[in-house]
Known about the structure:
The chain is α+β, with helices and mostly antiparallel strands. Helices cover 35% and strands 14% of the residues. It has helices spanning 3-26, 80-92, 125-137, 161-175; strands at 115-122, 142-147, 150-158, 180-183. It has a four-stranded antiparallel beta sheet with strand order 2-3-1-4, with helices on one face. A hairpin with a 2-residue loop joins β2 and β3 (150-158). It is elongated and about 135 Å long. The termini are far apart.
Amino acid sequence: MQQKIKYRLTGLAVILVSAVIVFPIFFDGAGYQERHLTSEIPEAPERPEIVRIQPQNQALPDTSLAAEPMSPVPLPKAPENVQKVIDKEAADHKIDIDIHKEQPVLDQQGVPVAWTLQLASFKDEANAKGLRKQLIAEGHKVFTRKQGDLVKVYVGPEFQKSRLEALKLKLKTDFGLNGIIVRFTTQ
């Protein structure tokens, strides 16, 4: 054999013998202490007992639809001096209201019943805004609501339906709009 191959085989044998002797010394498993630590995590607590509590309050009534109006409560006649002040203020502010003729009423939930005049429905919001500007310029209380893809124009609200009926006739002659009177809601 050649001399180089002998040196190589001798070197390989020395490495193997030293690996067999040294390997068990360093890798006996005693050097890595963290694996042998005891756990200090406490045991899981017992699950609490689930208690079902029955509600004590009554469920609120459904308010998605407006409640029906109650019958009006008769109002006492105002004293003469108070009636004079009311008449004077009504004349000064051009208010035409007679609470003894058509009394405002409350519904079963205690909410005042008010009415609005729905004049028009538009797909284009600019048209609704234009009509609203015209009506405001005439001195009317006007608001719009978006419902779906329509914008509706309303006049009001008023507590006396008869005032809206008179206003409906006036707006029909002035603007050519035939509206419908609907119950006022905040939604």
